[in-house]
Design goal:
alpha+beta
Length: 153
């Protein structure tokens, strides 16, 4: 039954599996942390040239996403980002980052300190928030440059 549900979700574009580490020796472009050490936090960006870039957390991915010109100039990425993905923190499912929700202010620290915890839907975020604290659940359009800078202080 579960397999049939996953196949149905895939056909409607609602299930993309999990984000798998493509290079076991890869490090994050922003924080130079090893990706394999933080598989639960892994995020991914797809570039216009078809390449994929992986990040150690939402904060790291959003830093690059919001400052693409800088990261292209310094050769961290070689094309514009066209799609971004997160993993639901509880289920591990790969989700379009623009459709996800993010928990701010939880007691759970990310790989590089304060971070946003990503979820596929608001229900997953609320359940996690009840167990682990949190201040606010945010949609993608609320992830401003100022918020990402604040998390990095």
């Amino acid at each position: 039954m579960k397999r049939l549900l996953i196949l149905a979700l895939i056909s409607y574009g609602l299930y993309a599996g999990e984000i798998k580490i493509t290079d076991q020796n890869a490090t994050d472009a922003v924080y130079v942390l090893p990706l394999k050490k933080y598989p639960k936090w892994l995020t991914e960006a797809e570039l216009a040239n078809g390449k994929k870039v992986q990040f150690v957390s939402v904060k790291s991915m959003m830093t690059v996403y919001q400052h693409q010109a800088y990261f292209k100039k310094h050769k961290f990425i070689d094309a514009n980002i066209t799609k971004i993905y997160i993993q639901d923190f509880t289920s591990g499912r790969k989700v379009d980052a623009k459709k996800a929700v993010y928990l701010f202010g939880s007691r759970i620290a990310g790989p590089h300190g304060d971070d946003l915890i990503p979820f596929e839907n608001i229900d997953n975020a609320k359940i996690f928030m009840f167990k682990n604290g949190g201040t606010k659940i945010l949609r993608f359009n609320k992830l401003t440059k100022g918020l990402i800078r604040y998390l990095d202080m």
